[in-house]
Amino acid sequence: MNSTIFIVEDEANLANTIALNLKAEGYQTLIASSGKEAASVFERTMNGMDLVMLDVMLPDVSGFELCKQIKKTRPELPVIFLTAKNQSYDKIEGLKLGADDYITKPFDLEELLLRIRNLLKRANIAAEEVFKFRNGEINFSTFEISTHNGERMRLSKREMGLLELLTRQANKVISRDEIIEKLWTPDENASSRTIDNYVLNFRKYFEPNPKEPQHFHSVRGVGYKFTD
To answer: What's the CATH code, domain 130-226?
Structure first.
């Protein structure tokens, strides 16, 4: 599926020129000319966007404020600032807010297209590290999870190791012995109770009803398995 790029730019000619060039490269585009319009479009179609190109100087809401909203809702979504401002302060401010790149006007279209390709490539690689299932999301590269009620949390390295072991082999029973062998060193004296506690926590994070788990199952006398 072709990537969709959201262009937020109040100069209509520039927005249309960028959109035309992106479409020639095989991308799909969305356009908004004000901050309020951009916020509305983002709310409706945020999950279908792959990258946002954001002007700082908009007639109502600033691009900086929009970037905050975008990154709060979809922190992994790449954002490129397009602006006439060339002061280092504005660049630093944009990058502090989580923007992935910053291009000052006027700019070369070939350079812009190259930067877009590079950002999308990086985002696709990062997406491979994110495991999504019915009641949650696990980011193995950042150690962050999204729980069944949308809360974001950071887990320990060993918890993530157990999550990866279970989810990468969905529907397969993983024995306690295998878990201990792969996640602990011989001198650490790991116990089954520790694993039990981790799985109980996973149920709190990902199961709407932890007493009736849909994903993290115990197999008596053997170990655990994950089902989507």
So the answer is: 1.10.10.10
Rounded CA gap, 108 and 37, in Å?
A: 27
What CATH number does domain 4-127 carry, 3.10.450.710, 3.40.630.30, 3.90.1720.10, 3.40.50.2300? Answer: 3.40.50.2300
CA distance 3 to 9: 19
pTM beyond 0.70, yes or no: no
Alpha-carbon span 220 to 153, nearest angstrom: 29
User: CATH 3.40.50.2300 region(s) of the chain?
Assistant: 4-127
Give, for all 228 residues of the chain, the pLDDT tens digit.
578 999 999 999 999 999 999 999 999 999 999 999 999 999 888 878 899 999 888 888 888 889 988 888 887 889 998 887 666 666 677 677 778 888 888 888 899 999 999 888 887 766 667 888 988 999 887 889 999 998 999 998 889 999 989 998 899 999 999 999 888 877 778 888 899 999 999 999 999 999 999 999 999 889 999 998
